[in-house]
């Protein structure tokens, strides 16, 4: 159902470790902003375990969001990401796949950030919460499997990184933005 002529971003909002995830409402606000202000659709990607959550997230948005979580093979997943103009995700496989395919990325890190895991280079943006404890390298605050730093990370901070990246893509004349 995705028009191949339409510009879209891919989104990886899920991890097997919930303490790395960002709030659905913030993802919804970001994807709605992408559509309303930039006329860019969003495609949620992920594994079969992400399908139900991705459907719930899509339900917060509209017809400009597509859910392919759990509906693709690894090769198809790579092809979908390769067809996007930008990949936005959390600390999970999606941003790594996108970087390997040469796409710009915006990656949200909280307690798990490590220079060794982040995508290197000027077309890859990293967004962190503004807390002295980040990264703590724990499984959430006090190992609670809940990350207050990500709960507090405003959608506007991620949106600013996405806007900057889209501007760079446009300036460079790549990916049709």
Overview of the molecule:
It is built from six helices and six strands; from the N terminus they run βαβαβαβαββαα. With 177 residues, it is an alpha/beta fold. The protein has a six-stranded parallel β-sheet, sandwiched between helices. The longest helix has 18 residues, at 155-172. The radius of gyration is 15 Å and the shape is globular.
How big a fraction of the residues is strand? 5-15%
Mean pLDDT: 87
* pLDDT < 50 runs, ≥5 residues: none
Count the beta strands: 6
Cα-to-Cα separation, first versus last residue: 21 Å
Major sheet characteristics: 6 strands, parallel
Order of helices and strands: EHEHEHEHEEHH
Bulk shape: globular
Counted by DSSP, the helix tally is: 6
Radius of gyration: 15 Å
Structural class: alpha/beta
Helix percent band:
25-40%
Read across the widest sheet, the strand sequence of neighbours is 3-2-1-4-5-6
């Amino acid at each position: 159902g995705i028009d191949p002529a339409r510009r879209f971003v891919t989104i990886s909002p899920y991890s097997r470790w919930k303490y790395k995830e960002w709030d659905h409402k913030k993802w919804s606000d970001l994807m709605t902003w992408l559509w309303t202000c930039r006329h860019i659709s969003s495609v949620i990607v992920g594994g079969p375990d992400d399908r139900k959550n991705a459907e719930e997230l899509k339900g917060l948005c509209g017809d400009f969001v597509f859910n392919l979580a759990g509906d693709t093979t690894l090769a198809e997943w790579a092809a979908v990401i390769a067809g996007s103009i930008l990949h936005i995700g959390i600390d999970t496989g999606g941003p790594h796949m996108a970087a390997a395919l040469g796409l710009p990325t915006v990656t949200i890190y909280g307690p798990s950030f490590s220079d060794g895991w982040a995508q290197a280079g000027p077309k890859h943006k990293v967004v962190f919460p503004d807390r002295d404890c980040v990264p703590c390298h724990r499984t959430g605050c006090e190992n609670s499997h809940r990350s207050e730093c990500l709960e507090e990370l405003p959608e506007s901070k991620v949106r600013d990184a996405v806007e900057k990246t889209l501007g760079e893509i446009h300036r460079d004349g790549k990916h049709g933005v």
